[in-house]
């Protein structure tokens, strides 16, 4: 049975169609799990729970094999892989969902193998909250539970999401999602509200403006690494989450975890899909991490 501490990751595994002012790309490997895995897998033992369809390309599987420590609970089922289409406006902080096709995720009922039931950290990346709950229900012990979500689930599955929140240690979400969930425009107000709903810690991601952590009266800000050009912001939040979760598994501080997340996200946005993130070498990730940690972000 598994003994060394590991991160259990569940979220979407997708083929994305992305439309930006820098060009359009279809059927790119994407999904919250994918970005989080490539980010976390370099720094922490990461086990994946998820499902793909029979149309999932072998190159996609190779990426999962490269970055994951355990794929026992990654299933292939008859049907289509999750598909998502996103349209970015000139400002990459603003985007529109064109379509979300759940495919094999629609009926996926994960059954955790014994090896995956006692993680030290669980990252419930963005996916249907009932699926996040199904994974949590099978976990033994008392892991740190980090949760991310998205506007679709906030709008359509609020009751299930509320149940997830009650079992969340650290909630990650972006500014517009925090507004949608709480009706508060100001991140400080939204965080104060969210801290009464379950999580004792909240991180609000502000896109190109960085991120802010809240716990009780504590507040920690983290900036972004100044990349030359933001080509495709897809997956930045998931990359941040993967790095953040991996650093916490390694026993790093919240500030260090936010800096690692921010460093990884800065690679993600430099090219379409996972292209740049997957190629990022450890020394350059460290270099950006050092840059981020040296500054006082207020
Ligand atoms: P991010 O840019 O970090 O918010 O994440 C974008 C990724 O989330 C894309 O690769 C999509 O495949 C995936 N995604 C989009 N909508 C959803 C959804 N409703 N549930 C789960 N994953 C999604």
Tell me what the structure shows.
The protein is an alpha/beta fold. The protein has helices at 32-40, 58-67, 129-137, 151-156, 158-166, 175-182, 187-194, 236-249, 254-268, 275-279, 282-294; strands at 7-10, 14-20, 23-30, 46-53, 70-77, 82-88, 95-101, 121-124, 144-148, 170-174, 201-205, 211-215, 218-222. A nine-stranded mixed β-sheet has the order 5-4-1-8-9-10-11-12-13, sandwiched between helices. A four-stranded mixed β-sheet has the order 3-2-6-7. The longest helix is centred in the last third of the chain and has 15 residues, at 254-268. It is globular, with a radius of gyration of 17 Å. The protein starts with 6 loop residues before the first strand and ends with a helix. Adenosine monophosphate is lined by residues 12, 14, 16, 30-32, 84, 100, 126-127, 150, 152, 234-238. The site of adenosine monophosphate has 17 residues, from β2 and α8.
Write the SSE topology.
Blueprint: E1 7-10, E2 14-20, E3 23-30, H1 32-40, E4 46-53, H2 58-67, E5 70-77, E6 82-88, E7 95-101, E8 121-124, H3 129-137, E9 144-148, H4 151-156, H5 158-166, E10 170-174, H6 175-182, H7 187-194, E11 201-205, E12 211-215, E13 218-222, H8 236-249, H9 254-268, H10 275-279, H11 282-294
Parallel strand pairs: 1-4, 1-8, 2-6, 4-5, 8-9, 9-10, 10-11
Antiparallel strand pairs: 2-3, 6-7, 11-12, 12-13
Helix pairs in contact: 1-8, 3-5, 6-7, 8-9, 9-11
This protein binds adenosine monophosphate.
């Amino acid at each position: 049975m598994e003994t060394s501490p590991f991160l259990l990751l569940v979220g979407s595994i997708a083929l994305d169609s992305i439309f930006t002012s820098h060009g359009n790309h279809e059927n790119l490997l994407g999904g919250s799990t994918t970005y989080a895995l490539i980010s976390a897998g370099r720094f922490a033992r990461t086990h994946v729970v998820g499902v793909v369809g029979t149309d999932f390309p072998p190159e996609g599987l190779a990426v999962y094999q490269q970055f994951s420590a355990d794929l026992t609970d990654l299933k292939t089922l008859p049907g289509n892989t999750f598909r998502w289409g996103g349209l970015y406006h000139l400002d990459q902080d603003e985007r529109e969902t064109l379509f979300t096709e759940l495919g094999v995720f629609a009926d996926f009922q994960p059954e955790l193998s014994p090896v995956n039931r006692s993680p030290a950290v669980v990252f419930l990346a963005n996916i249907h909250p009932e699926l996040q709950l199904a994974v949590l229900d099978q976990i033994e012990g008392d892991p740190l539970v980090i949760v991310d979500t998205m506007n679709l689930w906030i709008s359509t599955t609020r009751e299930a999401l509320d149940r997830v929140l009650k079992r969340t240690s650290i909630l990650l979400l972006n500014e517009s999602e925090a507004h949608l969930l709480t009706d508060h425009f100001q991140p400080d107000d939204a965080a104060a509200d969210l801290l009464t709903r379950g999580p004792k810690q909240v991180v609000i991601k502000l896109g190109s403006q960085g991120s802010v952590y809240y716990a009780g009266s504590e507040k920690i800000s983290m900036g972004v690494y100044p990349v030359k050009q933001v080509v495709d912001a897809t997956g930045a939040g998931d990359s941040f989450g993967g790095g953040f979760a991996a650093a916490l598994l390694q026993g790093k501080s919240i500030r260090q975890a936010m800096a690692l997340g921010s460093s990884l996200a800065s690679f993600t946005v430099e090219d379409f899909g996972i292209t740049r993130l997957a190629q990022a070498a450890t020394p350059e990730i460290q270099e950006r991490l050092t840059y981020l940690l040296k500054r006082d972000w207020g």
